[in-house]
Specification:
The chain is of the alpha/beta class. It has four helices and ten strands, in the order H-E-H-E-E-E-E-E-H-E-E-E-E-H. The strands form four sheets. Strands 2-5-3 form a three-stranded mixed sheet, covered by helices on one side. The chain has a three-stranded mixed sheet with strand order 7-10-8, with helices on one face. It has a two-stranded antiparallel sheet with strand order 1-4. The termini are far apart.
Length: 224
Amino acid sequence: MAERSAPSIVLKVAVVVGIVIGGFFALGILGFLVGNYIVVPLIVGKGDEVEVPEVVGLPLEEAIVLLEEQGFESVADEKRPDTLYVEGTVLEQRPGAGSKVKKGRLVQLTVSSGEESVRVPYLLGLTLEQATAIAQRRNFQIEQVDTVQSDTVPLGRIVAMKPDPEIRVAQGTKLRLYISAGPIDKTIPVPNLIDLPLERAQEMLEADSLVLSEVRRMEVAGLS
């Protein structure tokens, strides 16, 4: 007979190992179900039924302690976002509060993971039109647009935004954008000083934060 090739042997070994691992996994699940729904009820079956306490709305740690004090096991087997309950609060319990069950039964808990959060898009440096298109694609609404002077960001581009870009916020958070109105105008109009006495001219310049740097005197024909 021809010898079996090495790849064929390796493949068969891998299949056998996979079957064994899958069998252990299936046995683990079966063991949990049998233990919780058959063995535990048989063990505690002779005891009196007790009422399951209300733990919805409690922090998970407090819920676990309360259940243990009344003779129940507990497991937090699910998390989901919620807008009412803060992260770590019990949303649901199974069996429900008020149910009559034997002591020692497992109470399954669903816990809040907090409000569903989304990442704020980076809109700095974009035009308002570009920013609006991106915000809409990400399901954000632009609540307000203000203009500010900027020496560094070109006219019509976004200078700043609230909330800050790239942070995570609750879904439905609205954006506020600040658009560049161009550089600050640092020029000051010079007041008309013609025909004014020198002292009065100096007062007017000082009022506008201007400095009189030089005074030249000259003769004007026809003036005494």
